[in-house]
Amino acid sequence: MQNRVLEGKTAVVTGGTRGIGKAIALKLADLGANIVINYRSSGKVVEEVIKEIEDKGVRVIAVQGDVSNFKEAENIVKSAIDAFKSLDILVNNAGITADGLIMRMKEEDFDKVIQVNLKGAFNCIKHTTPYMIKQRYGKIINISSVVGITGNAGQSNYAAAKAGIIGLTKSVARELAARGVNVNAVAPGFIQTDMTEVLSDKVKEASLNNIPLKKFGKPEDIGEVVAFLASDKSSYITGQVINVDGGMVI
Ligand code: NAD
Question: Which ranges of the sequence are coiled-coil (predicted)?
Answer without folding.
Answer: none
